[in-house]
Amino acid sequence: MGDTAAAVVWGVPVKPVDLIVSLDALRKASPAIQTLRLCHQFGKGKDAHVAKLPKEIIVFIEEELLAMHRVGKEKEPFSLPGRYCCFEGSCRPSDHMHHVDHVFPKEDYEFEYASDDSEAYEDDYESLADTARAELCEAHPEWRTKQGLVLPANFPSLLHAKIADIFDINTSEEVHELCFMSKVEWEDDVRDYLSTQGNSEIIRKYFSLNVFIMCENLSDSTKKYLCDCDERFSKVHSDPEKVAICYLVLPSRSTKWEVRLDPISRESGSYYGESATSMLVDRNSLDLTEEHQQRFARAMSRLALKPSVHPSQLQTTLLASCSMTASSPSLMQYPRRAKKEQPSAEDIEKKHTAITGRIRDMEKTHWPKLMLLVNHNCHEF
């Protein structure tokens, strides 16, 4: 039916898009950084100006080189980071109207177009912009004064948003197909990026850490929370389905076991399987050393990463020992009875405040943390 892999690790959760962008930047900037370091260390003679710079300046230059390669890459069309919004379901059709980024409103609110846009395409967009402008002016009669049409200072952003709304309603099937293919292909592409393209090796080489990434199917409760409380999903036309969970972790020894189907229920057509396993944990391997902490600190600083906890990962903390009153009755899992009543707007806001507060507090605490990572793979239905 499938298998389960598990490991006890020290790790830090990070945003997958930020990690990809930073890894690309590190790979591209490495030759220049290496040359800079060699010149600083071995440069000789009166013209060896780099060798005379203090080490702090060299570090600053390296950081600027990395930052230069990170700018704007998370939204680059058709790139792996740029397609993540399709995978997680937070994109709108207008997010794929990449030519919008090539249009710049001038002071008189006419438009100039990038040279790579065709003339026919310019005409289509001009018509779309005219429609959006007319609808905005109709919705805001207060803009029309005795002196003529007086547009607010934020009119360019209002116009951009209105164009996106109109495009969402009148989008073509080709745009939906583009988004769907990005959604389907992203998971394989990110695994290929980390494994076969050698980016996991970069993490190991520079920081002596591993990357753990899994693409998780969201629970119904997490889907509802995201749709109710996350503004990125406020205008999408379908519920989010998956999320990529990414951790930087210390190298560890994991284990894997199969979930075995009951042979009788399998023959009757009702699939049922249960598999339990136990294993010892080396107590000495749980101690986090100062050198381990320095690995994480160096990686987070060099890659410009911050701890990022996804709402789907807010699980109960495991305790190896606790009081009898705080313990779980057993390891057996029982199905929850679904609540039929709909929460009020006030209840949704309270839940949003509580969850965002919990995430914020968790992200501000000391990392890395000791965690149990579990990954299930189902092979048979």
Give a written overview of the molecule.
The chain has a domain at 93-175. The radius of gyration is 26 Å and the shape is globular. With 381 residues, it is of the alpha+beta class. The model is unreliable at 99-118 and 329-337 (pLDDT under 50). The longest helix is centred in the N-terminal third of the chain and has 27 residues, at 16-42. It has helices at residues 16-42, 55-70, 84-88, 119-139, 155-169, 173-194, 199-207, 220-229, 263-268, 290-302, 345-364, and strands spanning 2-14, 103-105, 111-113, 144-145, 148-149, 210-217, 242-249, 255-259, 369-378. Strand 2 and strand 3 (111-113) form a beta hairpin. 16% of the residues are buried. The strands form 3 sheets. Strands 1, 6, 7, 8 and 9 form a 5-stranded antiparallel β-sheet that branches. Helix 4 packs across helix 5 (155-169).
Average pLDDT figure: 80
The gyration radius over C-alpha positions equals 26 Å
How many DSSP E strands? Answer: 9
Hey, roughly how much beta strand do the residues contain? 5-15%
| Helix share, percent | 40-55%
Quaternary status of these chains? single chain
Order of helices and strands: EHHHEEHEEHHHEHEEHHHE
- What structural class do the secondary elements suggest? alpha+beta
The major pleated sheet works out as: 5 strands, antiparallel
Spans of 5+ residues with little confidence (pLDDT < 50)? 99-118, 329-337
With helices defined by DSSP (H or I, 4 residues minimum), what is the helix count? 11
